[in-house]
Amino acid sequence: AGAETVKRAVQLDAASRFQESLVCYQEGIDLLLQVVKATTDEAKKHRYRQKISEYMTRAEDIKKHIEKEKQDGKYHKQIRIEENATGFGYEKLFHEYLTEIVSEVWVEDPYIRQVHQASRYLLYNFLRFCEMLVKGPCKVKTIHLLTSYDEGSGRSQQMTALEEIKQSLSNNGVTLNIDFSSSIHDREIRFNNGWMIKIGRGLDYFKKPQGRFSIGYCDLDLRPCHETTVDIFHTKHTKKM
After folding, report:
1. Domain with CATH 1.20.58.80 in the chain
2. pTM for the whole structure
3. Cβ distance 104 to 192 under 8 Å?
4. What span, in angstroms and rounded, lies between the C-alpha atoms of 60 and 158?
5. Which helix (H) or strand (E) holds 164?
């Protein structure tokens, strides 16, 4: 398992997918260290240690490269979510960027509105996103939402739902600030630790569940997705709304 993991790390490294490569190097090194502990053959131990040393040096170089890209504002990672892919719940997608220092979050999405549409549950998706922030490990105190007003009779339902979310967040020590714009079309999420995530479909990249009692209705990791692209950047200056 360790050999396969570092092999994958080398492949990702060669493809300049450095963040993913670093994770694989770290996991592979941990697995190989366990092998060294269990090996009694001294010659094999020596070979393993040499390889581990090489991988650790490369992992450290990648760390420095990523840190420099972040400092220079050049960091960019892209994730392609394929049609009907699963395993892309919010916690899986955002967890590595929600560090303990995150206390403020900005969400720009024009369609945080109708509870029920033909294929959308956007207010529920926003609520799920907020639940993830409340659970931590980050210490979010303020969420800023910029969206657009629903049309016609849907506006009343939209406002009622958002006010309910706002009150519930307040009960959990989190302030939700809501602003509306008729010209917004960008979709992005920003954390005050410098990470910015742009999702082509915003928070609405999940397909409609097959039924209220079908697998994936509650657990978004099990929900099939629409095809979309996720772009991740790091910037030293978090833009304010």
Report:
1. 1-72
2. 0.74
3. yes
4. 48
5. helix 154-171
Q: Which CATH number fits domain 1-72: 1.20.58.80, 1.10.10.10, 3.40.50.360, 2.60.40.10?
A: 1.20.58.80
For 76-234, which CATH class?
Answer: alpha beta
Query: What residue spans in the chain does CATH classification 3.30.870.30 cover?
Result: 76-234
CA distance 35 to 23: 19
Per-residue pLDDT tens digits for 134-186: 998 899 999 999 999 988 778 888 899 999 999 999 999 999 999 999 898 88
Greatest extent of the chain over all pairs of C-alpha atoms, in Å: 76
Measured distance CA(159)–CA(210) in Å, rounded: 27
Q: Model confidence over 102-124: pLDDT tens digits?
A: 999 999 999 887 654 543 468 88
Q: φ, ψ for residue 14 (rounded to 5)?
A: -65, -30
Tell me: cis bond preceding 137? Omega within 30 of 0 counts: yes
Q: In one letter, which amino acid is 213?
A: F
Distance of CA 8 to CAs 14, 122, 123, 142, Å?
10, 36, 38, 39
- The neighbour count for residue 240, using CB atoms within 10 Å, is 8
